[in-house]
Predict the 3D structure of the following.
Amino acid sequence: MTSVSTVALIDYGAGNVPSVERALQKLGAASKRVTRPSEFAGARAVVLPGVGHYAAIIRALDEHNLRAALLDAIERGVPFLGICLGLQALYSSSEEAPSLSGLNLFSGSVRSLPTTVKLPHMGWNRLRTQRTSALLAGVSESDYFYFAHSYAAAPSPVSNEVVATCSHGANFTAVLEHKNIFATQFHPEKSGAAGARLLQNFLSVAAGMSSAA
Amino acid sequence: MTLARRIIPCLDTDGARVVKGVNFVGLRDAGDPAELAARYNAEGADELVVLDIAASRDRRPTFLETIRRVAAELAIPLTAGGGIRSVDDARAVIRAGADKITVNTASVERPALITELSQEFGAQAVVLAIDAKLDSGSLATPGCATPHWDVRVRGGRDSANLDSLQWAQHGVELGAGEILLTSMDRDGTQSGFDIALTHAISTCVSVPVIASGGARTPQHFREVFNAGAADAALAASIFHDLTQSIRSLKEYLTARNIEVRFPC
């Protein structure tokens, strides 16, 4: 396969699933909504969209038995893109729901942004790139992306998955990239042409990974 | 890196078509919502608001279809509202493609609605719309310089007997993630945003505030961002009838050191 034939879009009821679906469709990528572990079969890429409360995404992954299937797909090298809560879920835990365990693919926890600024961090902001990234190819620091969140992952000095940060009261992880794992705190599906470029980059990278696998 | 101030066109609809007019008086057809949405998406609008001003039950399916058609044209966030009275109402609007929903009269009648929506969809999806009207008596009281803005409901027709500042703060405590603040005194007048009202609300709540009502000139937007401390500014007819282009408005603001986003 030289192209991403099917993107598995994890549908746990998050509000932005239709938007992500439409954004992928506009880029020529077919996607299918996945609600059960068996439906991951044959997926050339997995997208985990999310918006709202951290507890909702973690509980949904567990109630639908999607956690193991998702971790298995990532382990097998299937290209993965997490959006908003889909980024936060990759860490070990979140202050928003301290009793729940995240996917624990990266160490560190998700914390509230400082209350010295207005929350949610809602609107268009820019990125500070930390290193070169396939996901951000062609994206510049003058491009704006749409954010809507109150919690964020703090960039750790020992972790190198962070490829771009953003700032709202404090610096936080805006984009991460590690092997086949990609994630953004902002919503590329709502971020105009800059967001579309990022999604296209993911699809291109995913196609390359699939053909190499 | 700071948040850009947002410019938000608003489509007031009768369910299916965009209409112009104040308080249902002298409604005129102002175009097809999907066509206007496509234009604003391309012109650099930062977000779009679509309201069903009549919000009658029997027109609900028509409005949901309008949201679907509008959402299909957008690569920017969409806020929709008008007549949302329950979590189920909100879910239908969100599933049709809205990212956020606004509540107004129903939340005044039953404030717990705000909490229910916030728990279900997250605070970032819940916009509390407040229609505020100056109580002129509050300025006439000797020794009392603080104006009082009354909350109006049912399209501005009735008083809710609530203070706008207190209601805004209470709404945020209940779970609203944003305030859409409309000045009933300025709405439709094109005499500028109500700076005192916007500043009073924006500096007393911890969430972003969208200022609405009275916009005409680029200077009005500059004032509401600087003196009014608004996080976003909304207007309808000046954008629909091309009195003001979004691009030239943003060029004006940029030249005056107000950060706005230009689409690449």
